[in-house]
């Protein structure tokens, strides 16, 4: 009987369950959900709703990281696209607003993808450019003010609900489903995992690695745009300075918690989203427990370090070495 | 001649700065004064200090995203220590520098021994330092100690209203010290060697682990010093201060001609890179109609121009080197 | 890796005492070195003796154990067994650093210096002359110039190392090693990327060091260089000592035989050419294909049901040839014609569209994707050929994987196991399956039987024969000449990055191939 690794994802789901349980301990009403004016309310719904932007970012980020890349610009892209949406919301119909905003996200992603795939700039550096300039561009769009809007159509994307579920959750689920359909419904997922796992072997097997590289950055840009729209719609405005600030880090963290290695290869979109929910559940839990919300960053730092150390190639090798020893001694006993 | 070729990026940066200064002076007659230059130094002193540390890190092939948070932590710690816990300012300075150095050493050790990418480790460091400063205090705390008023009054008066302030003096000293350390010591040579080839450096018998830990220790200690200067400059401590300074510092280093992939660069270049960023800010404030966000966009454009230029020269160099060799890849 | 042990040629039988240089006590004496990696024996009881003032060639094909021997000698890899004495004293360095301190320095093909630092800094990194903690740049440069002048090199030592040719970089690396009081210098393929003139410069330096009494271990693939500069030759094959003799007692043919072949009498398994049907239509015709500095222009015709073998020493241009044919490296000269149509080959995708498949030599870095399952690895090329938007249904993937696992007897027969957990031979079979699944017209195999167990050898050879019978065109690179002659209809021998001899029909014999590789008179071999 072949030795199998534990079913992938168990640890993340257990972690999420534990955090939710802890939240329930500090706040017994945590799991209470009530229906009010056709929309569900409750702490659990809150976790999902507030986790939506990071979950959206992590959907794009997980593909980029699986290709051995990184996208530091998603926070800035959120700010740009949110600013576009907020500025146009009261003067243009919703389809135009969405097209302009999502188009800007695609353009940002294309820029990153071309820098990485064609100019062959290392991903951290390439996306750093937009991370720096992007916030300036967003401020240019809002002219440095906090732009507000009243358009109920756009506001619906942040505060409305579909079949009782808040729209951000629905949008996140839709984006996740679409991405899963595109990535796992085609052979793209396999090609991304192969390229991230071994770029040279994949190129020799005939995979168009360059095109796929551009595509994942474009998709990351699109996800960031949607996250920006949701964030703007939620606050009925755009704050170019603070929209999406540090969220690129949360998104990377979500992907890492979701078990995708920073060194590329195997990825799971679903678990990246679970990772985003874990982060949000911790945020909410800290809030509910009455601890100062500032504890958040410290907890995040500790979690990211713990996960990384567990993923570390050297420490991993040591664990694998133990496994080999164990396996050997067992087979020796058998023979 | 061969030795001079690598000065090209720094010379280009210096030329950009001088051209920018001349353009500003042509636009605004008051611009070309000693006072503006001195203000440029004072206003950007804290950035100049972290940029020196960042130069070491980037030349060694790493990156340090935690410096902005370390500055924030330092200002809050100082404000609390001096105002609330009654620690004498000078002892508080020493304490905070030791804390920061230890923090950097820990990050360097994790990067070295867990073989993790520097950006993610220092990212965690960024969360941690910012989180701890939030936990210490979320308010902006004024610092009223005598030493602070004394130090902010203290300045070399150069005539025409120009003052060489304490922060500016500290920055200039750090820049000169950084140049000596990087270009004239064994440690500096090791920093370059690490960026050139980490594996080869180890095979040449250099203690790679020690050097790596030292480099991040230096970067964090300088971020702490920068925090001290920042608190002098603002006479306060605030956990949200210096948000995003790591990006400004990286941008200054790259604009200063240092290769982001490591191995090449000069402390002096980073200093000029800081001045270029300061120049853009000063121009915007002189103009009055331009808004501050143009500074970010201009920095981004400069960053792109320099990175594209680096990539091009690397590509050309590699092509010319590969042609005669003809080994199989 | 046939189970027969190679017999040493007559020359190797002579006792070393007859050699002039052997009168001194040995400088370095390695006894019984063994090393296994996860069950694979890389080094099996190897002895090696180096005398002061001796240039000692260490030869062998890929996987022969040369690099493992060097790594165990310099402490980079821990050995499983064996002892080592340097000038009579037992040493056991645990790292390259300790080896250098003991007096054993290594200069690799990929020069292990910092390319961005100046020549002077590279020479003295970590031991620069200092005053008050500051490096005395002037003094360091003066010393560097003087040191290099001793090797006949007069260059600007303040310039970055990378602005100089690879030959000069090698000399700088050697100078650094010697200046750190190295008594044993290991040069690992220093000449692989040098032109003829640069090689001469390097040889001059080596002879000078020899005169100083330093012992040099010289690894190379170029036989001319061995005979030009070496005093003694040691050959490894399959991790074992194949033979060791003074240069005068090791003629070329014997040397090549030691490296590649076995005794001529062993080359019994001749291909029964009668069994081969008439060659089919031309699948691909290459005319004057080549790339400057990579491989000299060559003509090559590949026919259906026909196996063309490429033989030659490592670095002779075999892999380079197949990479041009597959478009993995774009050619800068020549034309390609596939099924009568002129085509351009600039990337693997184009070659695959024409029905080519390529199983590379470097299984780990260019073949498998270790994290993916056997099934995913098998369908990868077929999927890439169909395009991302036409995914193979899971059912079909399972069917393909199951078919090839059965056909090639891949073990364990678990399609969902990560391929990295399989043995080398089973990984190789899965890679073959990857290309067979694309139903290629032309299949290129680079060392298909290297580093795999004996059983898998036989199965892969049988498979090659079967494929040929089914009308596939094959182009096979192999160092296993006895195997090659059993299935190849035509063998092209390469030397120094050029196709030099083409053998067809009954001329396809181990002896003829060895003679061509050794550049010995063909008549002598043909008589055998």
UniProtKB/TrEMBL annotation, chain A:
Keywords: Cell membrane, Membrane, Transmembrane, Transmembrane helix. InterPro entries: ABC_transp_permease. This is ABC transporter permease. It is a multi-pass membrane protein. It is found in: Cell membrane. Its main location: membrane. The chain crosses the membrane at residues 12-31, 51-67, 72-89, 95-117, 124-142, 162-183, 204-231, 243-263, 270-291, 297-326. It comes from Ancylobacter radicis.
Automatic annotation (TrEMBL), chain B:
It comes from the Bacteria. The chain crosses the membrane at residues 45-78, 90-113, 119-143, 164-184, 213-235, 247-280, 292-312. CDD domains: TM_PBP1_transp_AraH_like. It is a multi-pass membrane protein. Its main location: membrane. It is found in: Cell membrane. The keyword Lipoprotein does not apply. Keywords: Cell membrane, Membrane, Transmembrane, Transmembrane helix. NCBIfam families: PRK11618.1. PANTHER family: ABC TRANSPORTER PERMEASE PROTEIN YPHD-RELATED-RELATED, INNER MEMBRANE ABC TRANSPORTER PERMEASE PROTEIN YJFF. This is Sugar ABC transporter permease YjfF. It comes from Ancylobacter radicis.
UniProtKB/TrEMBL annotation, chain C:
Residues 1-23 are annotated as: Disordered. InterPro entries: AAA+_ATPase, ABC_carbohydrate_import_ATPase, ABC_transporter-like_ATP-bd, ABC_transporter-like_CS, P-loop_NTPase. SMART domains: AAA. The keyword Transport applies. Residues 1-11 have a biased composition (Pro residues). One of its GO terms (molecular function) is ATP binding. Residues 28-263, 278-521 form the ABC transporter domain. Belongs to the ABC transporter superfamily. This is Sugar ABC transporter ATP-binding protein. It comes from Ancylobacter radicis.
